[in-house]
Amino acid sequence: MAAPYTMAAHMVPGSAGTPATKVELRISCHKLLDKDVTSKSDPLVVLLMEHGSRWYEVARTDRVKNSLNPAFSKALTVDYFFEEVQKLKFAVYDIDNTTVQLDDDDFLGQHETTLGQVVSSGTYTKPLVLKSGKPAGHGTITVVAEEVSGSTDVLNLSFRAQKLDKKDLFGKSDPYLEFWKADNRGDFILVHRTEVIKNNQNPTWKPFKISVQSLCNGDYEKKIKVICYDWDSDGSHDLIGEFFTSVQELIDNADRQFDWQCIHPKKQKKKKNYAHSGLVFMTSCKVTREYSFLDYIFGGCQLNFTVGIDFTGSNGDPSSPSSLHYINPYGPNEYAQAIMAVGNVVQDYDSDKLFPALGFGAKIPPNYAVSHEFAVNFNMSNPFCAGVQGVLQAYENCIRQVKLWGPTNVSPIINHVARFAKAAQEEPGASQYFILLVMTDGVITDMDQAREAIVYASHLPMSIIIVGVGNADFTDMRVLDGDDGVLKTIRGERVARDIVQFVPYRDFKNAGQAALAKNVLAEVPGQVKDYFQKRGIPPNSRPDDVQSQASAPPPSS
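Above: the chain's sequence. Below: its structure in token form.
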């Protein structure tokens, strides 16, 4: 393409609305059903929210092995709207495999409520029920909600220990640390758990990062309890000891290896000569700023939206009502609905609202040669369409002129957008990010090349949304999504970060465009933030920050 993707310096938000208040949900369970024969359940909680008449998964906790009384360290963050009744469902499963599907996992119970009830309850505890609504017989769920606000600082921490108590009969200890923050009622809530170091009384745990908000709600003097356990495979983890600290103490001692005595309360009471059960050292503490997606948007970062449309023969003759490309005068087809669903959201973050629309898999005029990278408006030097309606008009005009062909090669348009993302990467600051919407009806025929293209694009300011249209087998698209494992090229090169989100349109036929958009765009804010933060790029100055300079009188000559 000859014409570059040029964007205005700053974006004025349009109809996207006021950002919601973020609420962090901390979850624990008590006396769950035991579904495992030789051990205990390995529970995980799935959070679903209702939209219309259907439930959609929005987040999952971590999995806790061999525990009927799990406290989950991963908080679930949701948007809170006072003016809406936001229905929640917490579903608890016993996870015994590595797949993301839950069909083959044991169901332990669920609870339905509203976010308003959880927020207004302080500590919200309810019994679990079966899907039929009958009591599960065992198990309660406790949810503590806290508003996410205040400090955006992040602590980068690392710890080691020395001479921890030996807890295992035929070995040493398998130690790990848990970090618990104090709440306003004097209770403690789990916020982080390290990995287990096997058979080692002098362990060094991997560095980790945690927001100051999660660790102390922005109160740097708030008490933090650190507990050291010896891990056991049956879930009966032995207490080695504990100590208390605060974020302020961590920061004050960041320039040296500060240590705490790990105290076992019962041993301390029983043994007169008891000193401690080992020492825990903080080996590093660094404070960094964690920028949000909105920080980058308010700093003028543009989201450049490109549409990629599958024009292969498997879509069916466009003149037939059974075709996926049939232009129905009484309502948009699935391709058009996907364009509207995603485009109507993304267009608020693109100041000029000019969207390139590309096609693949068709014979195009005037020579009717097969192309896997052509402009839907047939002007490759200027493939831009004016807004979502412009894309739809170009699509309807195109479908009447091209000959559907094949095969289904998606790598050319991925590489096409990647070229512009690469050029934007070389510009200073966080000014541009690219979103490619690919819509296809079937099996990808250039799978190896698509893997290569996605791995390359994962290093660039770019995300890819794939919408599967029709009822075909979408196994390849799920592989590209990477949710079942880390995507690799045939040479073994791994993606730098997860940039692909795939959804089959058929899952949203009865839910409406808003539900589709919410699902396919859910990961984009995190992907934008992750890209710039991994490269150490802060948001640009907000337009408000320079207004005072612009209004200042010119210097005297």
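The longest strand covers residues 135-148.
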